[in-house]
Amino acid sequence: MPTPADHARTIIDWVGERPLAEVARDLAALPDGHALLNAADAIADAADSDDEATRSAGLGALFGGLVEPLNDGFTPAGRAAYARFFGRIVWRVASRTPTLLTALAAAGIISEAALLARHARIRANTATPPADARRIVVLSRVTIGADILLSSVVLQRLHQRYPQAELVLLGDGKLQGLFAGLPKVRVRPINYARRGPLRERLASWQNVVTAVAEERADLVVAPDSRLDQLGLLPVGDDARYLLWENLQGEGAAPQSLAVLLDAWLARTLALPASPTVAPRVALDPAADIVRGRLRAAFGPAPLAAVKLDHGGNPAKSLPKEAEVLILRRLRELGWRILLDRGFGTDELANSEALLAELGWNAVDIDDSGKGFGRAIGECAPGALADAPLIRFHGSISGWAAALACCGHALSYDSVGHHLAAALGVSVTVAFTGHNDPAFPVAWQPRGRGSVHVVEIPSAAKQHPLAWQAVLDALPAPTAQRS
Question: Model's pTM, two decimal places?
Answer without folding.
Answer: 0.95
